[in-house]
């Protein structure tokens, strides 16, 4: 026993001695350093940002050890900690109340841009010397704790972008020293406390992006020291208080997207220091008061997307500092005051979708450096102002859907800054004299539906960045297609339908980027050159109604992404290339009314696609017969085909089962989280645990109850709609790019994609979960005409935004009654936009065949946009008939419009003599146009929106 006891005694003595050595330095550490070490042990430091928060090996000073640590600021003699800056360090976890108790001399505390969660520790409110408190961009949740008024020296309080809920803290108004107050971007609810009008020194107040309601308190007008106020993106009741006109120092006022109604108070004209006023996306009505002309300091004025009427006041000519004038999406009328053209600083004029008439001011652009002009969808006449680009900085000229006439302004041919020209749907005439060699940045040109002549300019080949060119429906354009046109390096879309173009079809050259080529209804002759094989990214080719001949080149059928081929009404001969039958991308092949012969490839199309070719035969058309008169390939071939198909199905099912088993066993890789505006900074684990019982979700695939979608309640009580999207690993970047564009698409008639978590093989999309169900559930509910009209216009606006305001456009892909959902105000929103297109994108051809990821998305978009428009037409008829007619195309094709109109009128209890009968007729006509058989004959969503919106304006 003695022999064993001695080594054990020595070892124990050594350990005790060693522990004393290690403990002594800790016992000598100052209380501030100990508190920070305690804080470090409590929080999550995933990036090791606090790696220098360690004790020295020895201590020779009475100073605070922590003064040398990152983020720690001490006084001059290092005896007190007066600042703690832990911002942007990727920290997380939950902070306890006692962690800050020793820092009574702290002046600045910054915890911003981290992932701290749960409740804000009330112990912070005991730091009575604080002058600045910044906890922005975290995930603090629950009600904001009381006690903030204890910080009676506080100058800056920044709480932006957290997950706080419940009412705004009323006691914050008791801090007389406060100059900056930011409670934006959380989930605060209830009204703005009227006590917030009692701040004595406040300069900046930001309450936007919450769930605030009730009336805006008029007491806010007592804030005489405030220069910057943002309280929009909430859902208030009532109007803008006229007392706001008393905030004499106010320079910036934003109450956009706030459900405001009533007129704009003329008292706002008393704000003589105001530089920016944003009231867009409300329900403001009445006229724009002429007194606004008194706000000489005004630089940005945006009143868009309201119900304003009347003219732009002549007094706006006095706003010499105005840079931005935005009044789009209203019911404004009259002419644009000539004085607007003389505003020296004006660079953006956005007044589209109103009822404006007359000519544009003749000097527009002469006295100011205009960059962006959009006056589309009005009733303007006359010509383009000759000085529109006098100062050489004009980038966007958008004039479509008006009644403009005359030739193009010569100044445009010298406007080297131009990027985008849209003048379609007018009555312009003369030559297309743009001098493309002088327009190095020009990327988008749409001159369709005009009266141009003189052919397509030969110098178009000099426009090196041009990717979209459309001159369709200029019946007198004439000329030929130059062999230098189609090989344009960046050209993606070339449309010249119904232009009286003649001459032989030119060679394709490189045509590396070409996606869409439309030359139907012309007089083009000759053959399709075999050089079409150079157009490896071509998606759609429409050469119908020309004089083309020769054989259909096999190179066309071999293009990897070709979806639409329309060669109808020509003189093609020979056989249809068999490769069309094995094309995985082909959706439409129309070769009707040619001189083709032989077998129809196995790719099944409607028989109408082959009419007018008496020598064609095949299973989907007329049977092919051999010399003995028997049908070729009838039974034996069919039986063999069925055997092969059955084997293929069995193999596919086996592979699928194995794949599921494999991924369940092996996991899907590390999860990542992406959040957009309106979603707190959750981690992927936070989200996955919300709809999964697995403790650690980094490597497992959480189930969704046997479905690809579900509802989930996130940690702070936010209910979201979850959609699962799977992808092949090589498709991940491609899919993430489109999801990112979906997340950034914001419109009042779209549901928001709040964020998503993903790994190498799948993603969970987190979307708004709106409270009032979908249109399919309510489709049979009797509604008055005004309600039905509101729903139709809202759908059109949301779809138009996706098609024309997102670049590249985002197809909805699955527009139907189930995907029209209603918010708390029964406002319709388009749900699941882009989701079906994502799934199709994942199932497309491999990247090795396609070549480039971004091009693959853009190649598929146009066909999906056509399908959206078709589905919109179907939805119109479904809404008009309370769900009784759900197949618009079939109804419109098989029923006379008079009978169909009678059914619509009966369903809406409208007598034939009723004055609103004409309105139903016009809406029915829009449905008819949108469901035309040929996609290219359908209107764009801009045109469809203009037609249905026109009813409101006429009323």
UniProtKB/TrEMBL annotation:
Q: Which residues cross the membrane?
A: 7-27, 640-663
Pfam families documented for this protein: LRR_1, LRRNT_2, PK_Tyr_Ser-Thr
Entry keyword Membrane: yes
Q: Name one GO molecular function term.
A: ATP binding
Q: What is this protein called?
A: Protein kinase domain-containing protein
Biological process terms from the Gene Ontology for this record are: defense response to fungus; post-embryonic development
Q: Where in the cell is it found?
A: Membrane
Keyword annotations for this protein, in alphabetical order, are: Glycoprotein, Leucine-rich repeat, Membrane, Receptor, Repeat, Signal, Transmembrane, Transmembrane helix
| UniProt source species | Anisodus acutangulus
Question: Mind telling me which GO cellular component terms the entry cites?
Answer: membrane
Residue limits of the Protein kinase domain? Answer: 660-951
């Amino acid at each position: 026993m003695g022999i064993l006891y001695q080594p054990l005694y020595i070892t124990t003595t050594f350990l005790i001695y060693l522990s004393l050595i290690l403990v002594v330095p800790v016992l000598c550490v100052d209380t501030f350093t100990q508190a920070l070490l305690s804080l470090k042990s409590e929080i999550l430091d995933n990036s090791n940002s606090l790696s220098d928060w360690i004790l020295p090996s020895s201590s020779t000073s009475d100073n605070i050890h922590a003064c040398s640590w990152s983020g720690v600021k001490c006084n001059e003699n290092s005896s007190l900690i007066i600042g703690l800056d832990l911002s942007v360090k990727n920290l997380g976890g939950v902070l306890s109340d006692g962690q800050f108790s020793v820092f009574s001399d702290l002046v600045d505390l910054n915890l911003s841009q981290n992932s701290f969660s749960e409740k804000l520790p009330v112990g912070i409110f005991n730091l009575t010397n604080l002058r600045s408190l910044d906890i922005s961009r975290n995930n603090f949740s629950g009600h904001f704790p009381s006690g903030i008024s204890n910080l009676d020296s506080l100058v800056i309080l920044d709480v932006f972008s957290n997950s706080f809920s419940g009412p705004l803290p009323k006691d914050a108004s008791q801090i007389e020293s406060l100059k900056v107050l930011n409670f934006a971007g959380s989930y605060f609810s209830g009204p703005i406390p009227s006590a917030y009008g009692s701040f004595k020194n406040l300069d900046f107040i930001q309450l936007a992006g919450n769930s605030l309601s009730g009336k805006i308190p008029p007491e806010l007008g007592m804030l005489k020291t405030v220069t910057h106020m943002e309280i929009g993106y909430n859902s208030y009741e009532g109007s803008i208080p006229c007392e706001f006109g008393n905030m004499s120092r106010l320079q910036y006022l934003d109450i956009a997207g706030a459900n405001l109604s009533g007129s704009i108070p003329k008292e706002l004209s008393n704000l003589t220091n105001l530089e920016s006023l944003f009231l867009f996306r409300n329900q403001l009505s009445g006229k724009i008061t002429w007194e606004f002309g008194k706000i000489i300091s005004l630089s940005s004025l945006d009143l868009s997307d309201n119900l304003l009427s009347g003219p732009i006041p002549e007094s706006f000519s006095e706003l010499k500092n105005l840079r931005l004038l935005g009044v789009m999406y209203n019911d404004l009328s009259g002419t644009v005051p000539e004085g607007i053209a003389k505003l020296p600083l004006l660079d953006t004029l956005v007044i589209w979708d109103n009822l404006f008439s007359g000519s544009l001011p003749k000097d527009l652009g002469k006295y100011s450096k205009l960059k962006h002009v959009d006056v589309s969808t009005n009733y303007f006449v006359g010509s383009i102002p000759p000085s529109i680009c006098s100062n050489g900085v004009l980038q966007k000229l958008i004039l479509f859907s008006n009644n403009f006439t005359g030739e193009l302004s010569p100044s445009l041919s010298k406007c080297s800054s131009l990027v985008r020209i849209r003048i379609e749907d007018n009555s312009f005439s003369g030559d297309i004299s743009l001098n493309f060699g002088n327009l190095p940045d020009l990327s988008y040109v749409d001159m369709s539906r005009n009266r141009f002549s003189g052919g397509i300019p030969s110098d178009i080949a000099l426009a090196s960045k041009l990717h979209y060119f459309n001159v369709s429906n200029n019946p007198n354009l004439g000329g030929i297609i130059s062999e230098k046109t189609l090989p344009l390096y960046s050209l993606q879309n070339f449309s010249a339908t119904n232009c009286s173009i003649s001459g032989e079809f030119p060679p394709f050259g490189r045509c590396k980027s070409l996606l869409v080529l439309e030359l139907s209804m012309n007089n083009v002759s000759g053959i399709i050159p075999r050089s079409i094989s150079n157009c490896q990214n071509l998606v759609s080719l429409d050469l119908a109604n020309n004089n083309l001949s020769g054989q259909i080149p096999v190179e066309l059928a071999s293009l990897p992404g070709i979806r639409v081929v329309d060669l109808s009404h020509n003189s093609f001969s020979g056989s249809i290339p068999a490769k069309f039958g094995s094309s995985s991308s082909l959706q439409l092949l129309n070769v009707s009314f040619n001189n083709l012969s032989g077998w129809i490839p196995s790719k099944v199309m409607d028989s109408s696609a082959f009419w007018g070719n008496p020598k064609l035969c095949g299973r989907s058309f007329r049977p092919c017969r051999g010399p003995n008169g028997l049908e070729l390939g009838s039974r034996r071939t069919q039986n063999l085909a069925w055997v092969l198909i059955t084997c293929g199905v069995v193999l596919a099912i086996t592979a699928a089962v194995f794949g599921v088993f494999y991924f369940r066993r092996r996991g899907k890789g590390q999860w990542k989280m992406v959040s957009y505006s309106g979603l707190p900074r959750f981690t992927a684990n936070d989200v996955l645990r919300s709809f999964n019982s697995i403790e650690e979700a980094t490597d497992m695939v959480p189930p969704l109850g046997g479905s690809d979608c579900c509802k989930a309640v996130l940690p702070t009580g936010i209910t979201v709609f979850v959609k699962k999207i799977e992808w092949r690993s090589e498709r991940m970047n491609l899919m993430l790019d489109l999801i990112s564009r979906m997340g950034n698409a914001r419109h009042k008639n779209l549901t928001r994609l709040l964020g998503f978590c993903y790994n190498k093989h799948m993603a969970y999309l987190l979307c708004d979960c709106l409270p009032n169900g979908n249109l399919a559930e309510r489709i049979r509910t009797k509604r008055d005409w005004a309600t039905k009209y509101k729903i139709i216009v809202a759908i059109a606006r949301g779809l138009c935004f996706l098609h024309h305001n997102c670049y590249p456009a985002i197809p909805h892909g699955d527009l139907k009654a189930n995907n029209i959902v209603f918010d708390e105000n029964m406002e319709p929103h388009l749900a699941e936009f882009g989701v079906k297109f994502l799934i199709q994108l994942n199932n497309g051809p491999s990247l090795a065949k396609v070549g480039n990821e971004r091009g693959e998305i853009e190649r598929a978009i146009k066909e999906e946009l056509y399908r959206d428009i078709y589905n919109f037409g179907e939805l119109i008829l479904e809404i008009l008939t309370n769900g009784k007619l759900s197949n618009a195309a079939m109804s419109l094709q098989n029923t006379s419009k008079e009978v169909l109109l009678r059914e619509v009128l009966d369903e809406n209890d409208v007598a034939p003599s009723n004055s609103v009968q004409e309105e139903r007729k016009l809406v029915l006509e829009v449905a008819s146009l949108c469901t035309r058989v040929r996609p290219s004959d359908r209107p764009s969503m801009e045109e469809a929106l203009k037609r249905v919106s026109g009813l409101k304006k006429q009323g």
